[in-house]
Amino acid sequence: MSNRALPRPRFEAPHPEPGLPEQRSPEQGPKAALKIETTTAPLLQERVSEIPDALFGWVIRLCGFAVVALLGLIVYQLVIGSQLSWHAFGWKFFGQSDWNPVEDQYGALPFIFGTVVSSLLALVIAVPLAVGVAVFITEMCPARLRGILSFTTELLAAIPSVIYGLWAIFVLVPIMRTYVQPFLAKTLGWTSLFTGPAYGYSILTAGVILAIMIIPIISSITREVLTVVPQHQREAVLALGATRWEMIRMGVLRNARAGIMGAIILGLGRALGETMAVTMVIGNRPEIAKSLFAFGYSMASVLANEFSEATGDLYLSALIEIGLALFLVTIVVNALARIMVWSVTRGQPARSVV
Amino acid sequence: MPDTNSNSAAIVIPAITWRRRAMDRLMTGLSILTVVIVLAPLFAIFAYLVYKGVGSINLAFLTQTPRPVGEPGGGMANAIVGSGVILAIASLLGVPLGIGAGIFLSEYGRNRYGDAVRFVSDVMNGVPSIVIGIVAYGLVVMRQKHFSALAGGVALAIMMIPTIARTTEQMLLLVPQAIREAAFGLGVSRWRTTLSITLRTATSGVITGVMLAFARVAGETAPLLFTAFGNQFWNWRLDQPTAALSLQIYTYALSPFDDWHRQAWAGSLVLIVLIVSAVAAVRIVVRRGTLAGA
């Protein structure tokens, strides 16, 4: 092997350091040295190999661009589809509570109300539980149990939402109707949040099933965030004579605040867009009621129920506008969450493979 | 792990008062309680699913199509096949594009463009599936003028792409830079290095990502509601309304008939077995894979 046989003098390294920070050395690639050899390299071989390389590079770049284009396509479809409704109602669309396909009057307020209330309820229930589980798995749990627990919580995330809905109809709704709702009415009825007949189907039930569904997401991201808190933080607090709980509070949770917030917001994003399980238990009535026992309707549910049956262009357009609103809200919420999680786990892959 | 109750140590530690200790115990207890509360519904769901599902699955369920409304008997064979067809279309469209985007992110995307694509795919992961359904409706159903398996496949493919792209990227980044350099040093061209060296080394990881994306969309219902639409009969054409397992479960769950409820449970069990075996297969592949120790 002589130097003259070096076939590809004009190679460039893909990138100095994908993922391997130790190798960050400025003297990457012997480009300059190799270029001198250009004249001695076999000409034919070089020509042959350059075209496929360029072609491959462009195909791959196209794939990357396609992801961005897809998002553009989603926005385009939603904006075009909702034009009719936007011109007919303007901003009033989001402030009106009248949803009447017969008279072609559409207002999205009841759906926004249902989505927001059920998602917030879900957060109230899910956050303490999810963070508790994450803290237990990362800080307290014996190593052997850790794998099993994280696998089980992952499994919870793998169940399709339609199965959650099915379970909710046949198990959760009766439980809510016979035990939880009467109990809440008796103890907290004075707040007027828990009044009215207990049908089982209600905004409250939707909140509960949503909570069950978003716990795995919040807890697995919280776990990731907690794992990247440096070990010496824990040791430092312990060395000061703290109990384990004090160590967790001061050394771990405080350091991971932004990341946990991100996890919670990510959970919120999931709850806002969740469709099937909510549709199956929320009662599907476009009303704004004070009581959490009342039927409600969510933005995603109205799409699921009415989209394929929408007669009339304005009806369809109004539904697409609800879809657009849902899309924009989840985009903002998710972007916010991503930034917060990144601020803590920066450098680490989002889902560590360790 | 750190043992906080080591009062017996020789170093003088500020007294741990009963209050602090009680707080410690209380919080430990509470976090164990949260684990119990969280796992309870999981076991409840699985137990109920297996209990109801196993009793409901029979040969007819797996081989027959639905009977007319209200008539007991029949099965979901067409829905099982339909789900397979829709998922196959989705994988055919989504997997190559997703892996391509992943290669872009790891091999060509260590710059501003890459960051943009990375951010967009993370954000797209959070787009509600029902919204994706609307988009597929506009893209395919509106043009074809009717619901179809193709539209359902397109919707699910859109959902798969960002997930696959991000996991593929992470897996490719795990491949040591030295391996790439070795290939370049031997005069292997860049495309060949990427495909036969980098991607090859990360195969098991990439498959993991694909299977996770697959498992995620396999149970999706919302984007199929107005794309694949569902069908009570056999359908072998890609441009016609097609039954899907998840859609059938949804329809049957909301129906007033006990026999359909029974079939909804059976369908759920089939679906969950499909998904869990995909996830479990991933675990096995990962454990055995080349990247397990990397």
Describe the structure.
- The complex is a heterodimer of chains A (354) and B (294).
- Chain A is mainly alpha-helical and 354 residues long.
- Chain A has helices at residues 31-35, 43-89, 109-140, 143-158, 161-188, 203-227, 231-239, 244-253, 257-273, 276-281, 299-306, 313-345; strands at residues 99-100, 105-106.
- Chain A has twelve helices and two strands.
- In chain A, strand 1 (99-100) and strand 2 form a beta hairpin.
- In chain A, helix 3 packs across helix 11.
- Chain A is flat and about 70 Å long.
- Residues 1-9, 16-33 and 347-354 of chain A have low confidence and may be disordered.
- Chain B has a single domain (74-288), classed as MetI-like (MetI-like fold).
- In chain B, 71% of the residues lie in helices and 0% in strands.
- Chain B has eleven helices and no strands.
- Chain B has helices at 18-56, 59-63, 77-108, 112-124, 129-144, 149-174, 177-185, 190-201, 203-218, 245-254, 258-288.
- In chain B, helix 3 packs parallel to helix 6 (149-174), helix 6 runs antiparallel to helix 9 (203-218) and helix 10 (245-254) packs antiparallel against helix 11 (258-288).
- The longest helix of chain B is centred in the first third of the chain and has 39 residues, at 18-56.
- The model of chain B is unreliable at 290-294 (pLDDT under 50).
- The interface between A and B is large, with 110 and 114 residues.
